[in-house]
């Protein structure tokens, strides 16, 4: 399975390290830096695909027209762009996105969180994207339960499934398990149903080489990280947010799964089975103590005016992040994250004590 990923993404190293599409945060600089280091970087097109064309054009510029050697050869009219694009399917417009996908041929699209009937929506996306890129753009689907994984395998036949556990930062299923049980159970069920060849990428709570090595032991071919990449030079993120990621530890008690952060920000179209994991702050505590959404939203709007000061335990700005937040201690280049995580995981998997430190 690792070899099927490597043949699709020739520049990548094994085990595969992926930077997750993170809305408004994962832009061309981050995605290209991750791919340049031998990982697979995803841009986030989100639910509103207005920046998609601009971001892919910028990514293409960074890949082929920067001071660095190209990651993939720019041959033919449609060279494969060595980054992926993540969509939030409950809002993303397929017709609008298709022409751009066809024009830039990203290495993969990552589909997530379609409204019901979800598998029908994903099936249509997969068919159309494959058709417009002659199957060169691979289809990744992020799932959060065993049932969802099997349904997507049967209906969509994705090239890769991202298995998102409950520790993940940002949005995911309200009810889910950690990758510790989710990855092996999905692997067994897919295998029993004739889909054992679909590679799995584990996501949720993985922030260093120990997590990546564990994901490999569980049966994944690699890992996707979001929270770890919040603290890198290339993330499009405010200082207040990034400082909060460095400050917070003990993610199981300092973060929470909730819909409060969507409600205060007026984002109300997520399908009901999803919520988001973020650091507990004043918006969350006030909601829990009975404050109405309207009052809470007003206070949030006032907080925006404080800029970076709006983050922190007394703040109201949202810090979406996973339980792995306590493992994130420094802001470094994205490529160094990929190289450090890869080196540490390989040392563990090869039982090489000399390579164990980050
Ligand atoms: C700030 C943030 C924003 C995210 N935005 C998206 C998104 O736009 N699309 C998506 O598919 N997943 C999104 N995710 C979830 C990731 O795809 C991934 O499942 C998660 O980051 C993995 O867990 P980790 O944060 O513990 O590494 C986001 C995660 C974070 C932390």
Automatic annotation (TrEMBL):
<keyword id="KW-0288">FMN</keyword>
<keyword id="KW-0285">Flavoprotein</keyword>
<dbReference type="Pfam" id="PF03060">
    <property type="entry name" value="NMO"/>
</dbReference>
<keyword id="KW-0560">Oxidoreductase</keyword>
<protein>
    <submittedName>
        <fullName>Uncharacterized protein</fullName>
    </submittedName>
</protein>
<dbReference type="InterPro" id="IPR013785">
    <property type="entry name" value="Aldolase_TIM"/>
</dbReference>
<dbReference type="InterPro" id="IPR004136">
    <property type="entry name" value="NMO"/>
</dbReference>
<dbReference type="GO" id="GO:0018580">
    <property type="term" value="F:nitronate monooxygenase activity"/>
</dbReference>
